[in-house]
């Protein structure tokens, strides 16, 4: 009989992308050393485009010099996947968890991330599905509602998923989202007739779906982001 498993969740609000990247790097190191439990960062970013390690710059459809005019940043990362957009009114979850302790591999991990978003969408009557071959993320028909891009190092995960609650979809017009040219992008707001609660409640619901997908028994909510972000500031 396995012992109960706990997921520690930090509710961070809006965080600059580079700051979240450095925070993830520190937490991955701490998780590898077993100094922290499985941890999840729940947050949003200011308007940001990110490219994965394949460096598919051609899928950015405007010059980098134009990004400041639309209030966006561009960052290169070591995650998998292609170019994507992060911004306000998008729920972002970054799991820092040990796949070895759970006993699953990379494919099962990604499938569990997909399953958590599919279950969450169903709460609002939205029928979502995993992507077809060569289509990552979660879709409603041929419109993408949730993106996945992960990195796994020594069995510890970082980066994660982004679910569109009600972002400004015009930002997606400047990229080929996730490198798939003939598909659209959508949001929970567009796909449901249900009145949406506050985004804090939505984030909590998505976290709960993720915890269920990975069979966590308990969620420990961390409400004060300064406790973890201030540590990060001190480590600059």
TrEMBL record:
In short, the EC number is 2.3.1.181
Q: In which pathway does it act?
A: Protein modification; protein lipoylation via endogenous pathway; protein N(6)-(lipoyl)lysine from octanoyl-[acyl-carrier-protein]: step 1/2
Matching entries from SUPFAM superfamilies are given as: Class II aaRS and biotin synthetases (SSF55681)
Q: Which domain of life is it from?
A: Eukaryota
Query: Which residues participate directly in catalysis?
Result: 178 (acyl-thioester intermediate)
Sorted alphabetically, the Gene Ontology BP terms of this entry are: protein lipoylation
Q: Which CDD domains match?
A: LipB
Cell cycle keyword on record: no
**What InterPro entries does the record tag this protein with?**
aa-tRNA-synth_II/BPL/LPL (IPR045864), BPL_LPL_catalytic (IPR004143), Octanoyltransferase (IPR000544), Octanoyltransferase_CS (IPR020605)
Organism whose genome encodes this protein = Microthlaspi erraticum
**Which enzyme type, at the first EC level?**
transferase
Residues holding substrate: 79-86, 147-149, 160-162
- The answer to whether keyword Ligase applies is no
UniProt keyword annotations, A-Z:
Acyltransferase, Transferase
Which residues does the UniProt record annotate as the domain BPL/LPL catalytic? 34-218
Q: Name one GO molecular function term.
A: lipoyl(octanoyl) transferase activity
Q: What is this protein called?
A: lipoyl(octanoyl) transferase
Family listed: Belongs to the LipB family.
Q: Where is this site: Lowers pKa of active site Cys?
A: 144
* Pfam families for the chain: LplA-B_cat
